[in-house]
Design goal:
The protein is an alpha/beta fold. It is built from 18 helices and eleven strands. The protein is 41% helix and 10% strand. Helix 6 packs across helix 12 and helix 15 crosses helix 16. It starts with 8 loop residues before the first strand and ends in a 5-residue tail after the last helix.
């Protein structure tokens, strides 16, 4: 029986027009159009948010928590992703943004960038240790991890078995709060301010662990307006900004690699480009690479589907912000995080494949279906137009074999059948019963006498 999955990415059927924009761009072919509406196949969805970007009707949404959920806890901590700072002009200081978070309802803030610094140190030690399967693949992006689980299960051993920065930040924030205030852990809410739908899913269904240290996630887009208003009136009493350039740089593609300081590294971003690189790894063509930083969103986390600012503008903002911070750090003593196994490593973090692309659990039946699928594919036009409701002809052939589609769903095959039927009807219309047919010889020879 197929396990039940939670997904942040959802469909709003009343907005769906049945176009094929989403099915053509889904990296795992997890969407079909049936009865004029898109349907998401739960076992294949990796919550990358690509369909959210592509849907012109806004029929794809991401479910996250909200500010009102803070009322469930006595004390609430905000975990702002580094990419949050890129949503604002670099003239607005990080300490002002953190102050604004406190103004809209949080009791404390802890930067995810600080967690990123510790993870960077831990990854560096992991790579320098040399005992890993090359190339090691970053496990920080949950959409990439799930892409590997679904589409490239043979690469699971390449994933770095370390917690993502948000989990480290959550663990450290919770430990700090328990020491400073007299509250139980369950009375403290730890909220990640996220640009990413996959992070919400990773909190509800942790990757490689039984439980997440994050209570919930709140989309950047959801609180952006409130933060803008709060920034305008915020009175800064304390500077909560503690992260360095290394931590903040994780917001951009390549920032993680810069912080880890691995020489033989490859940086790839945007989910389809990631898929192409993973195909190369699966073919054994990148064994000379030590480390791959793979990010589902174009440009890195600043390009997340739940972010507000244009990706290129956000990148410009972030680079200017990093330049300023780097200038400040150049003449000062900067804290260098030391990797701490109890903070960064979770022994339960072992990734398992997700069996979603199998034709059948029975190997014999699966082989028979594969043969039938290949024979069916040869009958299809190979145009990959998507009009059938499947992303391409191969997917339609698979759907036909699995009994969820028909050959007539292909408009070209349907046209062939209609044309053949029309020709047959014309031929039938010219035929008469034998009793009504006249003998050609009789017509030529009059009455035949």
């Amino acid at each position: 029986m197929m396990p039940k999955y939670f997904h942040s990415v959802r469909l709003a059927p009343d907005r769906c027009k049945g176009c094929v924009n989403c099915i053509k761009r889904c990296p795992t072919e997890a969407i079909r159009i049936r009865s004029g509406k898109a349907r998401i196949m739960e076992s294949r969805c990796i919550d990358c948010g690509e369909c959210i970007r592509r849907c012109t009707n806004r029929a794809k949404t991401a479910v996250t928590d909200s500010i009102s959920d803070l009322n469930k806890y006595k004390y609430n901590v905000a975990l702002p992703a580094p990419s949050l700072y890129a949503q604002f002009s670099p003239d607005i200081e990080v300490k002002t943004i953190l102050c604004a978070l406190l103004s809209i309802g949080f009791d404390a803030v802890y930067e995810v960038a600080q967690g990123a610094e510790f993870v960077s140190a831990a990854v560096r030690e992991y790579i320098e240790g040399g005992e890993f399967k090359r190339p090691a693949i970053s496990s920080a992006c949950p959409a990439v991890v799930k892409l590997i689980q679904v589409k490239f299960p043979e690469l699971i051993d390449h994933l770095i078995p370390l917690d993502a920065p948000v989990e480290v930040a959550a663990r450290m924030a919770r430990a700090s709060c328990c020491q400073e205030i007299n509250l139980m852990q369950e009375e403290i809410g730890i909220w990640f301010i996220t640009p990413c739908a996959a992070k919400m899913t990773a909190v509800r269904q942790p990757l490689g662990a039984e439980k997440s240290d994050v209570t919930g996630t709140i989309a950047m887009a959801q609180i952006y307006g409130s933060l803008l208003k709060a920034i305008a009136t915020c009175q800064i009493e304390e500077d909560y900004s503690k992260a360095t350039v290394d931590g903040l740089g994780w917001a951009l593609a390549g920032g993680e690699t810069n912080a880890v300081r691995v020489q033989k590294a490859l940086v790839v971003h945007e989910i389809h480009s990631v898929t192409e690189v993973l195909e190369q790894v699966a073919l054994g063509k990148l064994n000379d690479v030590d480390y791959i930083e793979a990010l589902a969103c174009a440009g890195g986390c600043i390009g997340g589907p739940l972010a507000v600012e244009n990706r290129f503008v956000a990148e410009h903002n972030m680079r200017r912000r990093l330049e300023k911070l780097q200038a400040e750090e150049s003449g000062a003593t900067v804290r260098v995080p030391v990797a701490s196994p109890e903070i960064t490593v979770n022994e339960r973090r072992t990734f398992e494949p997700r069996p979603s692309l199998r034709l059948d659990e029975d190997i014999v039946k699966a082989m028979n279906k594969l043969e039938l699928m290949q024979a069916t594919l040869l009958k299809l036009p190979g145009l990959d137009c998507g009009s059938c409701g499947s992303p391409n002809c191969q997917a339609l052939a698979e759907d036909i074999v699995q009994g969820v589609a028909r050959e007539a769903d292909c408009v070209f095959k349907l046209r062939e059948r209609v044309r053949d039927l029309a020709k047959e009807m014309v031929d039938l219309s010219e035929k008469l019963p034998p009793s009504m047919e006249q003998n050609d010889q009789g017509r030529e020879g009059g009455d035949g006498i």
